[in-house]
Amino acid sequence: MTTAPGTGAARVIMRKLRDIVHTSEPAQEKLNKLVSMIASAMVADVCSIYLKRGIIHELFATEGLKPEAVHRTRLKENEGLVGLVAETARPLNIADAPQHPRFSYRPETGEDPFNAFLGVPIVRSERVFGVLVVQNRAARVYTEEEVESLQTVAMVLMEMVAAGNFGDLSGLQEVEVRPSRPERLVGKGFADGLAIGRAVLHEPHAPLGRAFADDPAREEARLDAALARVRKSIDEHITNDPGRLSGQSREVLETFRMLANDHSWESRLKRGVRDGLSAEAAAERARAEHRARMQGAQNAILREQMHDLEDLDNRLMRALASPDGDDKLALPDDAILIARDIGPAELLDYGERLRGVALEEGGASSHATIIAKALGIPLVGRLTQLGARVEAGDRIVLDGERGEARLRPEPEVVIAYEQRLELRYAQAEEFARQRDAPAVTRDGAEIKLLLNAGLMLDVQHLGEVGAEGIGLFRTEFQFMVSERLPRTAEQIQLYSDVLAAAGDRPVTFRTLDVGGDKVLPYMSSEREENPALGWRALRMGLERPALLRTQVRALIEAAEGKHLRIMFPLVTVAQEFIDARELVEKELAVAQGRGRKGPAKLEVGVMIEAPAIAFGISILAGKADFLSIGTNDLMQYFFAADRANPRVSDRYDILSAPALKFLRFIREEAARAGLPLSVCGEAAGKPLEAMALIALGYDRLSMPAAGVGPVKRMLRNLDAQAAHAVVESLLTSERPSVRADLAAWANAENVPL
Ligand code: PEP
Ligand code: MG
User: Fold this and answer.
1) 3-class DSSP state for residue 451?
2) Do residues 334 and 197 make contact, with C-beta atoms less than 8 angstroms apart?
3) Which of 108, 272, 340, 437 has the most other CB atoms within 10 Å of its CB?
4) Closest CA to 398 of 202, 201, 187
5) Domains of the chain, start order
6) Per-residue pLDDT tens over the stretch 663-708
7) How far is the CA of 680 from the centre of ligand 1 (A)?
8) Cα 422 to averaged position of ligand 2 atoms, centre (Å)
9) Closest residue to atom 4 of ligand 1, CA basis
């Protein structure tokens, strides 16, 4: 490939480009020379430059179209083939342009005889500034080399615009090369928290002014060094496999290694620098191409491969950006990561060095969200156009509470946020001080505060917040952050690590709860009309028991000689629990048959998440060892309101007479059946909701780490008997919510919320 015919043309173009760029001629003159040079080097009948002015694309220079069309032909932002290239930010290479549905005929240009069309975007940081086009009479498709050459020219053109080379062309001032105004992007807060910091791009851009390299040999050496470092770091990942935590499996890393050593990737990059590009520009060009091919790929495997290659391009860019470091960026200590989306392994690579994460995509139960929560940093997602609005080093305020990002904020905004952060720090200190204080109400009710966890990272919080154990360990997280099904050995390892870290504190492992909104990409599943009401959690576990059996086996093995608590999600009728328990007993017998002594103590419990099982608690007496209410699901099914749909999720209130009556009923049923009962949904971690639960007689609450401090502070100031009387009196309320009444009472009683 290195000796392909186009390569020579690219080099000639680069040399001539440089000559043109460096003259002191007026901008229009430079553009005119540029188009005629490209047309002749590429043997094209036409070469035109369209630049964006406001919401139109204006023809700025042409060779081959009628000269009088220059500055007269103006296309609407999304008009014609030029609009299509700008819209998709991808090259368009077609043999028969007039036949294309998006072709827009402009008589003043005289373009009718031209059939072949190649347009590439003039783009930087995902912002499109214009389109560069070549056309030929003969209907033909341009070669890969030709596309590459034109992309290179577009890159250099972009630099010229950025460097103010066209400053004397009226109207171009509005081209905002580097965003500088304050902006507020509204998205969704997926992980709570506030952060003020500086933007670090997960997909860095080549620095402006560095498209050309003066010394190709030096660039090649830089490229070699960076490539070597990227490869070395992948090798190290394979040897030291941080696997269990990152979930990045060996197979995936091996694929990565293979791609990193792929000859065509390297030779393409090399060709770029030999043609006169800087190493960064060559890497950026490769990335643009991989991205375009990924977006265009119909085939899932090819798309996946292009995605991996793009990831490698990013690693290479990072290696080039921090020549002394590893392939990670040298991060400022207030880094806020900016990315389109990010996988769990990559996010864990940055780990504790981040203050927050801002994404264009992301989701409430996405892997990145799970990890951000475990790291205790805010994650705001669904920030449209984020990549195009931020540059590395920009100041950013990230608000996980409101789900927004403030880019380059005004000083007043920063001050306001600094005050909010101060308040949070002060509270955190207060919570830390009460860490070892007993969780007992003013009138002596002892409450057990437990932690919800799902990764090893979460387990570290146990001691930090002073929780008495793990009330809910969501085992599916290991499955969700993995690229493939975790092996039994990996499951055993995680469960033993968790038990070891918890020491004497009990851990309740919830078996795999997938399906619904928790999808495992590597497990094929049929699309269901109503996934939340579908084949999920224990329903799946009982029907396809292989997975559940393996998991139970792993739990039994990890808990050898220890206290093991297992609970099953979404039990709907008692028989499901009976079957699941039988499966556990069988696995225990198998282990014992192999000479293992098994756990010192085994308890098996039921999650109350489907309203039906609340009416089956009496059947569970003597069969189950404990119950735990998952209020997230229980309320979703109680109110028939999707917990993940913001339009309805906040419409109904757990702090309402019907829900509280239901919770009182469950507590009474559990007491009658002699079964210990806890609450492990999000409600348990919110002070006002926790107050109502304690008032109803609940004394075991399991919650995210951030909830422990506020809930403990609330209950230590609470008279549970008095609260009980208030909640009882509100059970007859006819209003849709009694939240305000409860808050007013707490306020009057000086119960901090
Ligand atoms: C719940 O439903 O309340 C619960 C704790 O389980 P999850 O949130 O994992 O569905
Ligand atoms: Mg649930």
Assistant:
1) strand
2) yes
3) 272
4) 187
5) 9-162 (3.30.450.40), 183-204+330-424 (3.50.30.10), 208-321 (1.10.274.10), 434-748 (3.20.20.60)
6) 999 999 999 999 999 999 999 999 999 999 999 999 999 999 989 9
7) 7
8) 34
9) 630
